[in-house]
Design goal:
By secondary structure, the protein is an alpha+beta fold. It has a single domain (5-204), classed as START domain (Alpha-D-Glucose-1,6-Bisphosphate, Chain A, domain 4). It is 27% helix and 36% strand. Strands 1, 2, 4, 5, 6, 7, 8, 11 and 12 form a 9-stranded antiparallel sheet that branches. A two-stranded antiparallel sheet has the order 3-13. It has a two-stranded antiparallel sheet with strand order 9-10. A hairpin with a 2-residue loop joins strand 5 and strand 6. The longest helix is centred in the first third of the chain and has 13 residues, at 46-58.
Length: 205
């Protein structure tokens, strides 16, 4: 598969009719300091935050249990080209606008380890290496996501944006992300990384 993930995402983001949402940048260490008791104390570097992104991309059910059905994620072998890592993953995810319902989501993933950007391109169909044909579930438009790490090495920013492949802008669908934008705490995948990989105890306050 020969995909330019960044170009596909950019084209969808700027296309008329699609529904694009960008969450506010999260200054991770400020939120850790202001909203958590962390034992032992900890501050992220950009490299550590990117390690979280790479792990989450490969195991979304472990890192985003609030979205991805436990045990449903399947990652297919990675292809490495320099600092780029490409793979496909399949999982059952909650619908954005109807989170009581799940659908099968197929995503072609690129991890740009040099620039610390991760792209997830939604797809309708995928034939696995062992010959199974998987079809994306119904209930919402296909979507593409970008996760990235920016900012200074000792003061990193966590960035997130999504474009849903609607024919016309869907204000109600965009509104389903307002809760994420207003959440004063870190996203669950950062908390999982802190607890499970970095061995920190967290108490929200």
């Amino acid at each position: 598969m020969n995909l330019d993930h960044e170009a596909v995402f950019a084209a969808a983001w700027s296309a008329p009719g699609t529904t694009s949402v960008e969450l506010p940048a999260v200054r991770v260490n400020d939120v850790l300091r202001d909203r958590y008791d962390v034992t032992p104390p900890f501050s992220y570097t950009g490299a550590q935050l990117w390690d979280m992104e790479a792990r989450k991309a490969a195991a979304p059910d472990q890192y985003i249990p609030t979205v991805v059905r436990t045990g449903s994620a399947e990652k297919f072998p990675s292809v490495h080209t320099g600092q780029l890592e490409d793979f496909t993953r399949i999982s059952d995810q909650r619908l954005w606008a109807d989170p009581e319902q799940y659908a099968t989501i197929i995503e072609h993933v690129r991890l740009d380890h040099q620039h610390r950007r991760a792209f997830f391109l939604g797809a309708e169909r995928f034939e696995t290496p062992d010959g199974r044909v998987v079809t994306a579930g119904a209930g919402q438009p296909l979507f593409h996501v970008e996760h990235s790490v920016a900012g200074d090495e000792d003061d990193p920013l966590n960035l997130w944006r999504i474009v849903l492949l609607t024919e016309e802008y869907d204000a109600a669908l965009a509104a389903s992300f307002e809760g994420l934008a207003k959440d004063p705490y870190l996203r669950v995948f950062v908390e999982v990384h802190l607890r499970e990989v970095l061995g920190r105890a967290l108490v929200r306050r």
